[in-house]
Automatic annotation (TrEMBL):
Catalytic activity as recorded in UniProt: K(+)(in) = K(+)(out)
Residue ranges of the TM segments: 21-42
Listed name of the protein: Potassium channel domain-containing protein
SUPFAM superfamilies: Voltage-gated potassium channels
Record GO terms (molecular function): outward rectifier potassium channel activity; potassium ion leak channel activity
Keyword Cell membrane listed: yes
UniProt key word Magnesium: no
């Protein structure tokens, strides 16, 4: 009894440094979960409204110009792929000229911007993003 009780439950024993690391990891996960809940609650309703408006616009366009819904959807997917690849109908300026590349590098270096790959944020979402990032940076 003396040896077993002195060691305690060895697999669950954490020294102070490991305990702090586990606590920090749990706090970071909780911080991320809370941030995701806030942004989901803020941005989801706006996204649903925008999607409904877009679907009405596409439906009206297809009806007005007598285009099959499948053909229009295929065209729009191709258009989205072109936009994602950086191809724009405005050919006045290349996307990857020096100023475009400078903007990209600045965004990557700062890691905090108004736009990201998930889309544009509402004004309230932008404000919360700045607040959230300031809170996270100050930790």
């Amino acid at each position: 009894m003396g040896i077993a009780s002195a060691r305690g439950c060895a697999p669950l024993h954490l020294n102070e440094d490991n305990g702090r690391l586990v606590l920090l990891a749990l706090l970071i996960v909780a911080y991320l979960v809370c941030g995701a809940a806030v942004f989901s609650a803020l941005e989801r309703p706006t996204e649903l409204q925008a999607r409904a408006k877009w679907n009405r616009t596409v439906r009206n366009f297809a009806d007005r110009f007598d285009i099959a819904a499948g053909d229009l959807s295929a065209f729009l997917r191709d258009y989205e792929a072109a936009i994602a690849a950086g191809i724009h109908s405005d050919t006045l300026r290349a996307r990857w000229d020096f100023t475009g590349a400078f903007y990209f590098v600045g965004t990557v270096v700062s890691t905090i911007g108004k736009e990201n790959s998930s889309g544009r944020l509402s004004e309230e979402g932008q404000e919360r993003g700045v607040n959230l990032s300031e809170c996270g940076v100050s930790q």
